[in-house]
Amino acid sequence: MRFLRLLFGRRARRRWIHLILGGALAMPYVLVGETIIGPATDSRYAFNDFPLQLLSFGVGLPLAALTSLFPLTRPLESGAVRWLCGVDPDRLAYGPARTRAAKGRTAAWFTLHLGFGGIIAGMSLAVPPFAGFLVALPVIAVLNRGWLELPAALDHTWVFALAPVAGVAILAALAACAAVSGALLARWAPALLGPTPEDRLAAAEARAADLAVRNRLARELHDSVGHALSAVTLQASAARRVLDSDPEFVREALAAIEDTTRRTVGELDAVLGVLRDGDAPGTAPAPTLAADLDGLLRRTRACGLRVTATVAADPEALPPVLSREAYRIVQEGLSNVLKHAGGKVTVTLRIEIADSRLEITVENPLGPSPVCRPGGGHGLRGIADRTRLLGGTTEAGPADGIWRLHVRLPMRGPV
């Protein structure tokens, strides 16, 4: 049963189809070979001469190897191998062959495909009719009334008895040849159509670039939306507690919530616009220290957090990229205070320039327990990523009863 499945199973049939496609692709090259062999051998009918057909086939295969240098050959052959030969898609290359080695392997594969395919396709055309004749020979002999003159060699009883067996054996041999040829091509395909080191490097670079974009978008979403949600949560909580006793504070909290959500929706639209295929990115500008540091401090103080800020650097003089990333770092530092220390603590923020570096320091007393999300999030990791991309350093941790975040960013660095 297993033997029959190997010869006639679904995979064997699909590989047989792949070989027949190779034979069909070989036909134009064989016809070109006949136009060369015919005049060279003074034969007017090379198509009717089997040895000349084989010679024409041999002449056509080098021509096939030359035409395999077209860019679409490897993608098309890889797709056919994937669907018909059952080869793992990850072991095949689907782009055009760029290097000399890749082109040589593609030419070798195309020649093998057309060579094996031409032979198996020719056998598939010639063998079944002959095998069918042998299987039906005893019936033909019995029904023959002189209408068909059989060769004298067939005028033996044992010949008629063995003819059906020989016919079935020939069909089985054809199936075995097709199965073996298909298995060999499937085995050789990864080596000849697989990705080269250059292809793997290009794919790795593309994945790294895509991952970098995804990580950047994730940081932007985390810093903007995470800070906004933390601030809005504390503002709403503080307003609810003093709803009856301090209407003025409630109005300020609601105004801060409105301002925070409006700005965050604009930033969210700008980030999500990059993710929408065919859509232009959002037009909301990325916040910077020069543009929104005062607003960030105002919205944070509206949460009840007491912020003492010392800005010894001119935000307008900072490079745009540095100002943007520094804003996100300050925003995330304040957001961490809101989430983990609560809204009734005093936080100290210092922004200064020392030794050609922008230094950002955020300090606050350690809270008894996290306020918003036990276990924390990815804020410190995002700060470290931003700092590393700018060529700076990050220090964060508890010391002497306070939590201290200290970031140093070069004024000019790898951005």
Automatic annotation (TrEMBL):
Can you supply one Gene Ontology CC term for this chain's record?
A: membrane
EC main group: transferase
Reactions the enzyme catalyzes: ATP + protein L-histidine = ADP + protein N-phospho-L-histidine
Q: Which domain of life is it from?
A: Bacteria
Q: Name one GO molecular function term.
A: phosphorelay sensor kinase activity
Which stretch is the leader sequence?
Answer: none
Q: Which keywords does the record carry?
A: ATP-binding, Kinase, Membrane, Nucleotide-binding, Phosphoprotein, Transferase, Transmembrane, Transmembrane helix, Two-component regulatory system
Q: Which residues cross the membrane?
A: 16-38, 50-72, 108-141, 161-186
Asked if the Swiss-Prot or TrEMBL record annotates the protein with the keyword Thylakoid, the reply is no
Q: Which InterPro entries match?
A: HATPase_C_sf, Sensor_HK_TwoCompSys, Sig_transdc_His_kin_sub3_dim/P
Cross-referenced Pfam families: HisKA_3 (PF07730)
Tagged with keyword Oxidoreductase: no
What name has this protein been given in UniProt? Answer: histidine kinase
